[in-house]
Amino acid sequence: MNIVLIGMNHKTAPLNIRERLSISCDDEDKILEKIRAIPQVLETLYLSTCNRVEILANVQDYDRAVEKLRAFVFFHGNLSSEELGKCLYIYRDDDAVRHLFRVASSLDSMVMGEPQILGQVKDAYRHCVERKASGIIINKLLHHAFRVAKRVRTETGVAGNAVSVSFAAVELAKKIFASLHGKSILVIGAGEMSELAARHLMNNGATRVVFANRTYENALRLASDFHGEAIDFDMLQDTFSEVDVVISSTAAPGYVVTHEMIASALRRRKNRLMFLIDIAVPRDIDPDVGEIDNVYLYNVDHLQEIVDENIKTRMKEAEKAEAIISEEMVTFSNWLKTLEVVPTIVSLKKKAEDIVEGELEKSLSWMRNLNEEEREKIEILASSIVNKILHDPITLLKEETRNSDADPYVAALMRLFKLEKDE
């Protein structure tokens, strides 16, 4: 029994290679069937995301299985030998388990702590179960990975603190307003980061979003995507007083938003708080706007400083997560070791049950005088005595499996009780 994980990710393979392998393996049903068709593969799971393509398998004849799996990736990714050598990683047993736990916990993600990967791992597992590609090892390993991911998320701050500029803007807005519920947003320009920030704000409770762009058609397109509103660029002055958050990202050479514009808007708002995010380079919003009372202005450098600090915090929390993973690996390893002695325990119990059954058959002549309830009590008594006799050796065998090498004990039991190896 060997656990192997073979694959490539954003750290080892450029996007064009990951795309090649992902596209050629887009039919997961067929992929699982092809992997399971490899004689050495007993169970398998196939995970494909934009940042990784991995095959997890329980195999026999490790070397031959790896050779076949490498050939599978080589063929389906249309890779050269050089590309395969540079991009592919192969983990075995404990290393494979650790890697899976790190992936599920988002420690191996491009953005550490992002929650999407756990859902993707769960989808891959659900699919392999539906296709009957999993077994006792994959089932236990994946459920254990989900448990590890939950512990990492609840016991560490690895998923806390914004690590993207757009999300940092949202976190700041939540601190300023306490709640974003019912707030209005004005997005100036059609920049990707400002659009992403608007999406995050909407997901966190903001209910109205207005788009302004020098090209009105672009504003209409974005408004359609967000179920929002589009305005002409010359209507900005009138709109400032109606919104709580302004996100600006244009290619204008000078300030689009001036001190007077915001001061005037704030008077009409009766000094209610305004939050402005300037993601443009060069800046869209006059820095003097930040001097106005009840106005909070952040530019891209401010947001990046927050992101950098949060990344440092996540890295510290990642150390706690790694400790959890190491602890859980011991638990899984102990369970895995007990499987090695299961056949011996089953054989021992079967032999004892056969002896009990045989002796009861020999006693049928005098047991005929007993009623059914009395015979049943005798059968229960005989089984109970055997179970109590076997309890200590079976418990010892399991303990030795967890603490050291149980092979000598297995050999001794098989010899003492004359158990057949094929049993």
In short:
This protein has 423 residues and is of the alpha/beta class. It has 16 helices and ten strands. It has helices spanning 15-24, 28-36, 62-76, 81-87, 94-104, 116-130, 136-155, 165-177, 192-203, 216-226, 236-240, 259-268, 300-362, 364-367, 372-403, 407-416; strands at 2-9, 41-48, 52-59, 89-92, 184-188, 208-212, 229-231, 245-248, 274-278, 295-299.
List keywords for this structure.
423 residues, alpha/beta, Rossmann fold, 16 helices
Produce the secondary structure layout.
Blueprint: E1 2-9, H1 15-24, H2 28-36, E2 41-48, E3 52-59, H3 62-76, H4 81-87, E4 89-92, H5 94-104, H6 116-130, H7 136-155, H8 165-177, E5 184-188, H9 192-203, E6 208-212, H10 216-226, E7 229-231, H11 236-240, E8 245-248, H12 259-268, E9 274-278, E10 295-299, H13 300-362, H14 364-367, H15 372-403, H16 407-416
Parallel strand pairs: 5-6, 5-8, 6-7, 8-9, 9-10
Antiparallel strand pairs: 1-3, 1-4, 2-3
Q: Can you count the helices?
A: 16
Specify the CATH architecture of the largest domain. 2-Layer Sandwich
**What Rg do the Cα atoms give?**
32 Å
Largest sheet entry: 6 strands, parallel
**Helix coverage percent:** 55-70%
In the CATH hierarchy, the third-tier topology of the largest domain is known as Beta Polymerase, domain 2
Low-confidence stretches: none
How far apart the termini lie comes to 17 Å
Percentage of residues in DSSP E strands? 5-15%
Based on secondary structure, the structural category is alpha/beta
Shape: elongated
Would you report the number of β strands?
A: 10
Instruction: Find the CATH superfamily of the largest domain.
Output: Glutamyl-tRNA reductase, N-terminal domain
- What is the helix/strand order? EHHEEHHEHHHHEHEHEHEHEEHHHH
Summed up, the domain count is: 3
Q: Average pLDDT, to the nearest integer? A: 87
> So what's the CATH class of the largest domain?
Alpha Beta
With strands numbered from the N-terminus, the spatial order across the biggest sheet is 7-6-5-8-9-10
